[in-house]
C-alpha cells in the first residue's frame, strides 16, 4: 500500500459501499414507491444482474488495465473506473428504490374509479377514436404500449375519475378532451 500523510483516511471498500447507500438514502426521496409484484421482480432482477454480472466484469477490466502499468495515462483503466462509478451509482439507486417499495395487491383496489393499475378505455372526443391506457407508477411506465405513469399529464387527469366523466387534459401537444368509457382490472 502506498504510504503518505493521508493513510489514516483509508476506508475499506465494503464500508464505502454502505456509506454510499446511506448517502443516497439521505439524498433520495423517502416517499414509498408503489409497485406491482412484477414491477418489484423487475427491479430485483436488474439489481441482481448489476451485482452478479456487471460489477465482477468491471472489476476484471480494472484489474486487467492495472496490470498494463502506468495508470496516469491508461485510458482503459480510466474508462473502466468510470463504468464502475456508473454501476455503483445504479446499484445504490436500485437499493434505495427497493428499500422503499410497497407492493400493491391489485385485487383489493376498487374498480369503480380509475386508480393505480386500472385499465381505462377513453374516447378522444375531437378525433372520435378509442384508446385504452393502463395507469401505473412511474417505474413501470411503457408509453409505447399505452402503459402510462400516474404522474404523467394524462395519468394524473384520469386518476380518481369514473365512467362517463369527460375531462380536459393539457398535454405538450395541446389540449385533449376525453370521455371515460370503461374502467377495468384485468
Write the layout of secondary structure elements.
Layout: H1 13-27, E1 33-35, H2 37-66, H3 75-100, E2 101-103, E3 119-124, E4 129-136, E5 147-149, H4 153-158, E6 166-171, E7 174-184
Parallel strand pairs: 1-2, 4-5
Antiparallel strand pairs: 3-4, 3-7, 6-7
Helix pairs in contact: 1-3, 2-3
Residue share in helix = 40-55%
Taking pLDDT < 50 over at least 5 consecutive residues as the criterion, the unreliable ranges are 1-12
Biggest sheet strand line-up:
5-4-3-7-6
Largest sheet: 5 strands, mixed
Assigned CATH architecture of the largest domain: Orthogonal Bundle
How many H/I helices? 4
The CATH topology of the largest domain is: Helix Hairpins
Oligomeric organization of the protein chains = single chain
Query: How many independent structural domains?
Result: 2
Which structural class is indicated by helix and strand composition?
A: alpha/beta
> What value does the Rg take, in angstroms?
23 Å
Written description of the protein model:
The structure is a single chain. By secondary structure, this protein is of the alpha/beta class. The protein folds into two domains: 10-103, Transcription elongation factor, GreA/GreB, N-terminal domain (Helix Hairpins); 106-184, Chitinase A, domain 3. Helix content is 41%, strand content 22%. It has four helices and seven strands, in the order αβααββββαββ. The radius of gyration is 23 Å and the shape is elongated. 13% of the residues are buried.
Amino acid at each position: 500500500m502506498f504510504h503518505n500523510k493521508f493513510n489514516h483516511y483509508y476506508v475499506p471498500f465494503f464500508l464505502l459501499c454502505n456509506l454510499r447507500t446511506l448517502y443516497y438514502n439521505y439524498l433520495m426521496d423517502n416517499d414509498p414507491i408503489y409497485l406491482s409484484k412484477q414491477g418489484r421482480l423487475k427491479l430485483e432482477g436488474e439489481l441482481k444482474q448489476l451485482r452478479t454480472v456487471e460489477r465482477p466484469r468491471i472489476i476484471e477490466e480494472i484489474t486487467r488495465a492495472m496490470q498494463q502499468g502506468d495508470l496516469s495515462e491508461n485510458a482503459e483503466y480510466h474508462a473502466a473506473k468510470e463504468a464502475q462509478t456508473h454501476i455503483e451509482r445504479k446499484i445504490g439507486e436500485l437499493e434505495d428504490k427497493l428499500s422503499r417499495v410497497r407492493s400493491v395487491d391489485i385485487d383489493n383496489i376498487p374498480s369503480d374509479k380509475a386508480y393505480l393499475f386500472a385499465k381505462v378505455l377513453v374516447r378522444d372526443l375531437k378525433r372520435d377514436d378509442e384508446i385504452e391506457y393502463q395507469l401505473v407508477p412511474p417505474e413501470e411506465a411503457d408509453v409505447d404500449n399505452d402503459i402510462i405513469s400516474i404522474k404523467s399529464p394524462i395519468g394524473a387527469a384520469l386518476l380518481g375519475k369514473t365512467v362517463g366523466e369527460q375531462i380536459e387534459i393539457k398535454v405538450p401537444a395541446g389540449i385533449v378532451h376525453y370521455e371515460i368509457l370503461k374502467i377495468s382490472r384485468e
